[in-house]
Amino acid sequence: MEIVVTGRNVQVPDHFRGLVEEKLTRLERHDHKIVGMEVELFHEPNRRQQKSCQRVEITGRGGCGAVARAEASAPDFYAALDMAVGKLAERLRRSHDRRKPSRRDRVHASRVAANASAVALMEAAPPTTDTIPAPRSHDESLPGAEFEEQWAAEYLPGRIVREKTHQADPMTVDEALSRMELVGHDFYLFADTDSGHASVVYRRRGYDYGVIRLGG
Fold first, then answer.
1. Closest Cα to residue 180, out of 164, 203, 162, 160?
2. Contact criterion met (CB below 8 Å) for 21 and 28
3. DSSP letters of the chain?
4. CB-CB contact of 176 with 198 (8 Å)
5. CA distances in angstroms from 154 to 13, 138, 150, 157, listed in the order given
6. How far apart are CA 158 and CA 154, in angstroms?
7. Is the dihedral of CA 12, 18, 22, 28 positive or negative?
8. What's the pTM value of the predicted model, to 2 decimals?
9. What pLDDT is recorded for position 84?
10. Cα–Cα distance measured from residue 175 to residue 66, given in angstroms and rounded to the nearest whole number
């Protein structure tokens, strides 16, 4: 695994590079598909942010295009490195555990095999989908509409301050869930291989997930 350590306005000593390589090499046991790690060190010169003036960002890249990220800030780079490595290890572990068949999946598979007729009836039934209510029309009266109009006349609306464009190949829902776990986000936008539409997987309560698809 290739490991690259860089610093922005920071000189990275050799012994710190060795420490980074030692800690990141241990993460290979969670995912052997990672082929490279990029580590960036940032220093915040603002004295008011002394408790989080040193930041470490780690980006792991897999051969299939998957990306795993983690970052942390602390008063010194050693503490920030430990925190970032811990976050990345947890995300890799969760992504690895997701790919393993759970006990519930094995029980479900055995029940399906033992009762094929019941499965056929279930598949014949129309699927139940959640519907998103239509937006309110402009003619509908809302509580406090006069106050909102007065507020809008005095204050400017929120602005879009950042835009991102990602080039990604179509993938399955399972692949999207794995990549969401790797980057540590609560949702992940992707192009669904089966439907060809833009879709979003997201995290629900506990260890469950949800999928939102755009139809048309």
1. 203
2. no
3. -EEEEEEES----HHHHHHHHHHHHGGGGT-TTEEEEEEEEEE---GGGGGG-EEEEEEEEETTS-EEEEEEEESSHHHHHHHHHHHHHHHHHHHHHHTSPPHHHHHHHHHHHH-HHHHHHHHHSPPP---PPPPPPTTS--TTHHHHHHHHHHSPPP------------B-HHHHHHHHHHHT-SEEEEEBTTT-SEEEEEE-STT-EEEEE---
4. no
5. 53, 20, 7, 10
6. 13
7. positive
8. 0.53
9. 92
10. 9
Tell me which residue has tokens 């879009």.
160
Place of tokens 């969760």: 94
Residue 4 corresponds to which tokens in the numbers above?
Answer: 């690259």
Distance CA 68, CA 84 (A): 12
* Residue pLDDT, tens place only, 123-138: 555 555 555 555 555 5
Q: How confident is the model at residue 112 (pLDDT cuts 50, 70, 90)?
A: low
pLDDT tens digits, 91-103: 888 877 766 665 5
Q: Cα(15)–Cα(10) distance, rounded to whole angstroms? A: 14
104's tokens: 């519930």
